[in-house]
């Protein structure tokens, strides 16, 4: 009897463009500026993206442009979480200090604040036009395209 091996990775062939954004704005302010300057309608999803069962969560905005078959996503790359610090027992003073831990959705790009994922079935999105509009926004420090095939943790971008 022949042994057949099924590779699940072969079935996932989603074509999308990924744009990295550096800015210090809150997620809702950035979504507002993107909506205003790119003529899109990003809305916050009810649930954030959780990685490793509530270890870290990332804000998630989405807009489905049904007329052009394009899905826009704005994803936060940074999660800051306050946790109790480890302390030895039996110390004279019981103090519980909090430590601020920082997690990243895509760890290879730990300086990137947000990602825009554009999934288009027809391949009619002009990346250069989008980048020029993004760089015209004064609150955005810089933006550039990222090759999704070179990202090790690209599974985090599957929604």
UniProtKB/TrEMBL annotation:
This is IPExxxVDY family protein. It comes from Winogradskyella echinorum. The lineage of its organism: Bacteria, Pseudomonadati, Bacteroidota, Flavobacteriia, Flavobacteriales. It comes from the Bacteria.
